[in-house]
Amino acid sequence: MLLNLSNHPSSKWPEGQRQAAIEQYSEVKDMPFPQIPPGVDTDGIRQIVEKYEGHIHKIALENSSLTVHLMGELTFTHLLVNRLQVAGIPCVASTSERIIIEEANGKKTSQFNFIRFRKYAES
């Protein structure tokens, strides 16, 4: 199972990303990404990570093939990925190709095309 912990619910993913998730992980469940105020210090990040880590461990007990798709605020993501890896829970990021469309009026539009899920490297 792929647990999607990001600001983007899987129901709004592009078709190719949903298909890749089902092919690779059989099932996708969403866990909303926390709202992390910019003024939160490192101890505050640790507290939020501990809360989410506890929820994820409970899910892992029910699903031994759990992989976590983790994308979001960098300090939270970094700490949570490290802790989950120590616990033996794999984490992946989604990768995309960014296409910039420049219009005659100078407006730029970014389009992101999903490419693949990439495992976070372990230290």
- Identify the CATH architecture: 3-Layer(aba) Sandwich
Number of strands: 5
What about the largest sheet? 5 strands, mixed
Q: In percent, how helical is the residue content?
A: 25-40%
* N-to-C span: 24 Å
What's the alpha carbon Rg, rounded to whole Å? Answer: 16 Å
CATH class: Alpha Beta
The chain-level structural class is alpha/beta
Query: How many structural domains does the protein architecture include?
Result: 1
Low-confidence stretches: none
Oligomerization status of the protein chains:
single chain
Strand content: 25-35%
Average pLDDT works out at: 95
- Order of adjacent strands in the largest pleated sheet: 2-1-3-4-5
Which overall shape is indicated by the principal axes computed on the Cα atoms? globular
- CATH-defined topology: Rossmann fold
SSE topology string: EHEHEHEE
Please, how many helices?
3
Short description, anyone?
The protein is of the alpha/beta class and 123 residues long. Helices cover 37% and strands 31% of the residues.
If you had to describe this structure to a student in words, what would you say it looks like?
There is one protein chain. The chain is an alpha/beta fold and 123 residues long. It has one domain (2-119): Rossmann fold. It has three helices and five strands. It has helices spanning 15-25, 42-62, 74-86, and strands spanning 2-6, 28-32, 67-70, 91-102, 108-119. The protein has a five-stranded mixed sheet with strand order 2-1-3-4-5. It is globular and about 50 Å long.
Any chance you could write out the topology, listing elements then pairs?
Elements (H helix, E strand, L loop, with lengths): L1 E5 L8 H11 L2 E5 L9 H21 L4 E4 L3 H13 L4 E12 L5 E12 L4
Parallel strand pairs: 1-2, 1-3, 3-4
Antiparallel strand pairs: 4-5
Helix pairs in contact: 2-3
